[in-house]
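Lab notebook page, bench 4
Experiment: in silico fold of construct C2
Operator: M.H.
Input chain length: 174 residues
Purpose: comparison with the prior construct
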Amino acid sequence: QITQFNPDSFTLENLAIDAARSQGAEIELAVRPATGLMLRANFGYTDSEIRSFDDNPAAVGSAMPYISKYNGSVSADFETPIGTGLDLTLRADYKISGPRSFALELPDVRSGSHDFVGLRAGLRTEAWQLDFFVENLFNERQPEDIFVVGNGAASLVRQPNRPRSFGVQGRINF
């Protein structure tokens, strides 16, 4: 089953694919090479195939929509005391996702692979935490969804991912 946008009714629809196969592997590694430093890495691989779909026989043999062939990430977290009861926290992360298709009607229309970098810096005590962050640091632009519109104005509509964003996040422990 997949969820797909219907531009005619402007709703999400659940479609049942008669038979599909999905198999893959995932590996994760975490290491603490020094006090206050944590390094993590993971990688996943997915091989999917539509085996039977009576509503759209042309999709048989194609990969399942919205599933990247591979994805991975690496991150580094560092924290150190900078005063009595006050810690500095830093984080950097990198994520990659492989190409994927979007529409059962257009299995050959695929995104490229895309990379995202995030940074975070903050201050923390036992009572509170304050973080400053940026997501999608390099403003990578990739489609999150592509769908077919038959209204004559456009044949394909692309919904992009979120652009670079900055923020502040606070937390109070009680």
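Observations: The mean pLDDT is 90. The radius of gyration is 21 Å.
Next step: discuss at group meeting.
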